[in-house]
Amino acid sequence: MHIDIDKDVCIGAGQCALTAPDVFTQDDDGYSALLPGHEDGAGSPLVREAARACPVSAITVSETVS
Q1: How far apart are CA 29 and CA 5, in angstroms?
Q2: Which superkingdom heads the taxonomic lineage of this protein's source (predicted)?
Q3: Buried (b) or exposed (e) across 47-66, using 16+ Cβ within 10 A?
Q4: What is the domain partition of the chain in residue ranges?
Q5: What gap in Å lies between CA 60 and CA 66, rounded to an integer?
Q6: In a 3-state reduction of DSSP, which class is residue 61?
Q7: Which of 55 and 42 is assigned the larger pLDDT?
Q8: pTM
Q9: CA torsion sign, 41 to 19 to 35 to 26?
Q10: How far apart are CA 17 and CA 64, in angstroms?
Q11: What is the pLDDT of residue 65?
Q12: pLDDT band with cut points at 50, 70 and 90 for residue 43
């Protein structure tokens, strides 16, 4: 799974961090960021829900093909 956060679109609402706090956080400026070691979202069933919760659709989740 690949998670991408469009920093130009993010408004810092924090819904991702509230929905999947084991994967997302907010940086010093209040914008969405991935926690270190969680860049692929593995192990969290809430990653897709966090992307859906984003009010400006700044988060995209895609399957990685190996």
Answers
A1: 14
A2: Bacteria
A3: bbebbebbeeebbeeeeeee
A4: 2-62
A5: 19
A6: strand
A7: 55
A8: 0.86
A9: positive
A10: 22
A11: 60
A12: low
Q: Do 32 and 12 form a contact (C-beta atoms < 8 A)?
A: yes
pLDDT for 50 beyond 70: yes
Sign of the dihedral defined by the CA atoms of residues 1, 35, 9, 55, in that order = positive
Q: In angstroms, what CA-CA distances link 4 with 34, 39, 44, 47?
A: 9, 9, 15, 11
26: buried, middle or exposed (CB in 10 Å: 19+, 13-18, 0-12)? Answer: middle
For the stretch 1-40, pLDDT in tens is 889 999 999 999 999 999 999 999 999 999 999 999 877 7
